[in-house]
């Protein structure tokens, strides 16, 4: 009976996106996940990038990094299963240290999180004493622990402005740093891997050697946008703020994953080009059958794609992979994450 309900629920959303035979298979696995979830008193938090059958079946909450951090801080269950990447599961553990936090895939990394170490941050603080450090949540706990405050794609400008200083160090995403410098007008000491391009001359930022970029979003180009506009002159282009400033400037809208989902829901336009992980385009298409989503599916996040319904079932069955954060690091990282959450609570 439960299986039929889950199948029906998936069919209502995904009949045009996923073949029926696969929907039946996925519904059966989803039911096993739901039974294990109840048995273990678990909550499932899933990022907007999860593939459609997972996204629309087992999560208690879906959202962007900030929304999921808030849920992780507030949920009451004993176990949090995080269908996302490692830094997100770690953030949940930082906020809820007494809960068991499970990540369904052993690795599920992130090119941004891998781009920086705690030692890198310590060196920058020594180079720029007294300048506050804002760190994107797409980092590991030891890096957060060296930071004054964290931010996500949905609150980066609000966080920078909350500090009340003219200069901030913003790590580790070169593009998010530049997009935030443009939005806030602040002097941002930011990472870069190339000399300042002509385009950048009106942004007030200072370059330090770095290599932080999202391996997915750095691939989208202004040419991709121009091609789509030639084919569909009425297309609305949405770009995540991890895209280059040139791409963001050429787009109609830039925002966090949830902000992009809302933008499509609230806008009457018939065609959208979604410049972010492709699975989210499928999820938006399922929710908006009257609108067409163009997406560049040759560009995928290999880390987010590691999380499947099957792995989620095994995570609950085998209690794996348990996320741990050393307590001294957790306490320092907690301050930076909590400070971010509190700022946005006032918005
Ligand atoms: P959001 O916080 O906008 O969901 O972004 C997370 C992410 O990893 C984007 O690549
Ligand atoms: Fe990291 Fe980019 Fe994947 Fe997001 S899309 S998890 S920033 S590699």
Describe this structure in words.
This protein folds into three domains: 2-111 and 304-318, 3-Layer(aba) Sandwich (Rossmann fold), CATH 3.40.50.10800; 113-213, Rossmann fold (3-Layer(aba) Sandwich); 217-293, 3-Layer(aba) Sandwich (Rossmann fold). The chain is globular. The chain has helices at residues 2-14, 20-39, 52-55, 65-74, 86-95, 118-127, 141-145, 156-162, 174-184, 222-231, 245-250, 257-266, 278-287, 309-318, 327-345; strands spanning 42-47, 61-63, 79-83, 100-102, 133-136, 149-151, 167-171, 187-192, 205-209, 236-239, 253-254, 271-275, 292-294. Strands 6-5-7-8-9 form a five-stranded parallel beta sheet, sandwiched between helices. The protein contains 15 helices and 13 strands. It has 347 residues and is an alpha/beta fold. Helix 11 links the parallel strand 10 and strand 11. The site of iron/sulfur cluster (SF4) has 13 residues, from loops. 1,3-dihydroxyacetonephosphate (13P) binds at residues 48, 64-65, 138, 152-153, 214, 240, 242, 256-257.
List the topology elements.
Layout: H1 2-14, H2 20-39, E1 42-47, H3 52-55, E2 61-63, H4 65-74, E3 79-83, H5 86-95, E4 100-102, H6 118-127, E5 133-136, H7 141-145, E6 149-151, H8 156-162, E7 167-171, H9 174-184, E8 187-192, E9 205-209, H10 222-231, E10 236-239, H11 245-250, E11 253-254, H12 257-266, E12 271-275, H13 278-287, E13 292-294, H14 309-318, H15 327-345
Parallel strand pairs: 1-2, 1-3, 3-4, 5-6, 5-7, 7-8, 8-9, 10-11, 10-12, 12-13
This protein binds 1,3-dihydroxyacetonephosphate and iron/sulfur cluster (SF4).
């Amino acid at each position: 009976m439960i299986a039929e309900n889950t199948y029906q629920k998936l069919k209502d959303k995904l009949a045009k996106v996923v073949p029926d035979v696969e929907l039946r298979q996925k519904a059966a696995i989803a039911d096993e996940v739901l039974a294990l979830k109840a048995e273990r008193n678990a909550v499932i938090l899933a990022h907007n990038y999860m593939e459609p059958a997972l996204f629309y079946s087992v999560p208690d909450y879906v959202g962007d990094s900030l929304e999921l951090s808030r849920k992780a801080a507030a949920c009451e269950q004993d176990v949090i299963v995080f269908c996302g990447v490692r830094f997100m599961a770690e953030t949940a553990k930082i906020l809820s240290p007494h809960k068991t936090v499970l990540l369904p895939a052993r690795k599920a990394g992130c090119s941004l999180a891998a781009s920086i170490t705690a030692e890198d941050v310590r060196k920058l603080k020594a180079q720029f004493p007294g300048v506050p450090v804002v760190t994107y949540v797409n980092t590991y706990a030891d890096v957060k622990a060296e930071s004054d405050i964290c931010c996500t794609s949905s609150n980066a400008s609000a966080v920078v402005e909350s500090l009340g200083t003219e200069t901030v160090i913003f790590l580790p995403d070169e593009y998010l740093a530049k997009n935030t410098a443009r939005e806030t007008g602040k002097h941002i000491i930011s990472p870069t891997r190339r000399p300042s391009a002509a385009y950048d001359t009106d942004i007030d930022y200072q370059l330090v050697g770095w290599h932080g970029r999202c391996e997915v979003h750095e691939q989208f180009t202004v040419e991709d946008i121009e091609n789509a506009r030639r084919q569909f002159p009425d297309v609305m282009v949405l770009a995540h703020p991890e895209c280059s400033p040139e791409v963001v400037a050429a787009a109609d809208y830039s925002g966090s994953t949830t902000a992009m989902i809302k933008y499509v829901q609230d806008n009457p336009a018939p065609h959208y080009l979604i410049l972010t992980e492709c699975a989210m385009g499928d999820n938006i298409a399922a929710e908006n059958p009257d609108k067409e989503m163009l997406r560049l599916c040759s560009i995928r996040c290999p880390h987010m794609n590691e999380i499947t319904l099957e792995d989620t079932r095994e995570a609950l069955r085998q209690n794996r992979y348990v996320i741990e954060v050393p307590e001294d690091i957790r306490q320092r990282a907690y301050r930076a994450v909590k400070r971010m959450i509190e700022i946005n609570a006032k918005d």
